[in-house]
Every structure is written in structure tokens, then in C-alpha cells.
Amino acid sequence: MVRRSPLITRSAQPQVEALLRQFPAVALLGPRQAGKTTLAQATARARGRVAVYLDLETPSDLARLADPEHYLASQEGVLVILDEIHRVPGLFQVLRGLIDRGRAKGRRVGRFLLLGSASIDLLRQSSETLAGRIAYAELTPLLERELPPQRAKSESLWVRGGFPDSFLAANDAASFEWRQAFIRTYLQRDIPQLGPRIPAETLRRFWIMLAHEQGQLVNHARIAAGLAASGQTVTRYLDLLTDLLLVRQLRPWSRNAGKRLVRSPKVYVRDSGVAHALLGLRRRDDVLAHPVAGPSWEGYVIENLCAAAPRGTEAWFYRTSAGAEIDLVLELPGARVFAIEIKRSLAPGHSKGFDIGSDAVGATHRYVVYPGGETFALDRRTTAISLSALVAGMVKR
Q: Residue 185 in 3-state DSSP?
């Protein structure tokens, strides 16, 4: 059972609406069940437009595109929403022709909204054909800033994760069961449909390993040994889950070749609720009692901050062999560099290694994000701050 709430408005919607006013086509990327279809239809209503929605995984909607050029040309004046468009790659060439003919008639923007859950595939296909005609936006699972304050403070979003059906479930048991079903569906149906012939049980074990490795440097050799597979196979599996927007590979900062910097990325299962379900953690108490609690909260904070950062922001972590470390480095437009340490403690502090790293990356702002509600100075350069307060400050800038 799922409790639907009318109070949750997706922060990506204004961005999608703005892009549709600038480009003929907009691609909205995000994992399955994150709410792309709901947002697309809400966007159409907000613009006072009738929309046609086609799910290209269903035979009936595919049949309407037996002659795609004729059908789509007949929808002049209507926002056409094409879900899972990477399933029909030949459509991109058709869209290009329709967009170019529409430009000749003065119809330049807001014609097609493309939805996809496999980012690299869609980006490659669309960028090759629709260069200069398409813009991109990402819809993550629910974010803390999208919730009413009291719900955000409960930590249920961190524990259950941000997929709407999981977060809004009637109780923890129903939420956990939804996430287990979500994982099964990806393993048994969605990934095989994308083409890779990977045994579902092997990929499940790999995904569980990544949940155990939350926030750690990727160790291909250790994972390969656990799977009885090659390092190349591990790389292929990791890239697949990254492409499906289920895993984040956070790159190491590498601007200074003179420093002895680590070269491996850190890996996170992007949705904390999915990470907990992979580890069999059903409730908040289960999560808090598990060693993954700190790394899981770190990943949760990183996802929220990356989503709130302005377009054009680059995200890194910093670590040297000598022990200098920063959990998250955000390079924002305007030469602003945020060095962010993430501590799941109500008595936050920071190390000398954080100060050394902050100097090395040229940090203009230094923060320690912690679960408390107050903002206060740790020293003359570093501020302890809550996730919600830092996100609010980034959004206002």
C-alpha cells in the first residue's frame, strides 16, 4: 500500500519547463520508478498543453509508430512524450527531420520530451543526431528539499530511499518489500532487455558487494575474486549500473600532477534505500546498527548536494596517499570551490587532512555537514552546517 501525497513537488520540473521554452527536444534522464512520467505529464499541464504519452516498451504504443514520421507530424501543436526512447533508436533521425521542418515554419521549441533510464545509451544516440536541438535534465529519486520540513527531519527518506513508492509506503515492511521487488525487476527484466546477458544472481551478488563497499575506493581485484570473474568483467558490470543511474562513481580530484593522489573512483549505490534493501536492512534501527550507516549517510548527502548544485558544477573527492582527504569537492560556476566533509555525528569536527586538502583544491568555502540543525563556525574558515541549510544556500546562489 502506498500513501500518495500532493505536497511533494519535484524540483526538476521548473528546469524541464525552462528547457522546453528554449529547445525543440528535452531528454529527461532518471532511473525507473523515479517519477519521470508523472513529472512529464505535470509539466505538460503546467504549460497549458495537451500531451501525447507513448511508452515505447508497450506493443500498442509501438504500433502507433509503425509510420513514425506520419504519426508524429500529425501531433503538431502537442507536446509528445516518448518514454524509453532508446528502445527505438531509429526515431532520433525522424525527430531531427520534424524539428528542422518545424523550425522552417516558426515552431522552434517545446515539441518533444524524451524519457530514458539508460543515460549513456540515450545520450550517445541523441547527441549524434539531435546536436543543437536537444537539452538534458536528470530526475533523481526524491530529495530532502522536496519534502515538507517535518518529513525531511524524520530520516525516513534516508532509510527508505527516494523512490516515491518506497518512501510513501504505509509502513517500513511495505517499503522494504517494494524495494526488494524493484531490485528483482531490474535484475530479471530491465537489464536483460538492454541486451547484456548477465546471470541475474551474479549481478545481484555484485550489487550487494557494492552496497557493502559504499563510499569506498573501487577495488576491482577484490570484487573480481568474490565473483570469480575478471577485472574487465567487474568494470563492465559497474559501468552498466552507472549507466542505469543506480550507481555513482565519484571521480578523484586530479588537477595537480605533483601530488600523490589516488586514481580510483569511489563507488556509491545512489539510492540509500536500495543500498539498505540489498543489505537486508528493513528499519532505521537496523541501519544504525550496521557498519554501512556512516557511508550510507555520506552517499545520501552527496546525492542531495549534487542534485542541488547549479548546472555546470563538477563533483569530485580528494585523497592523497599521505592521508589528506575531502569527502566531496564541488567546483561551481564562478570559480567557487566547496570542500565538504560529511560526518554522521552531533559533535562534528574536521581533520588536519581536510585543511590540507582544502588548501590544495583552492577551496573558497569549507563545510562539515552533520545531522544537527544548527549552523556554527568550527574555526575561522570552516562551518558546521546541516544538509538542508547547505542545500538551501546553494539553491539561492
A: helix
d(CA 179, CA 247) in angstroms, rounded, equals: 15
Asked if residue 112 lies in contact with residue 96, where contact means CB atoms within 8 angstroms, the answer is no
pLDDT category of residue 3 using cuts at 50, 70 and 90: very low
What is the topology classification, in CATH, of domain 12-138?
A: Rossmann fold (3.40.50)
In the numeric block, which cell numbers belong to residue 302? 552527496
* Class for the domain spanning 309-397: alpha beta
- What lies within 8 Å, CB to CB, of 380 at 6+ separation is none
pTM beyond 0.85: the answer is: yes
Contact (Cβ atoms closer than 8 angstroms) between residue 145 and residue 27:
no
CA-closest candidate to residue 49, choices 78, 17, 83, 14: 78
CA 302 to chain CA centroid, Å, is 10
For residue 34, how many C-alpha atoms fall within 13 Å in the half-sphere facing its CB? Answer: 26
309 has pLDDT over 60: yes
Mean pLDDT across the chain, nearest whole number?
89
| 144-303 under CATH 3.30.70.20, yes or no | no
66-70 long-range contacts, Cβ below 8 Å, gap at least 24? Answer: 68/94, 69/94, 69/97, 69/98
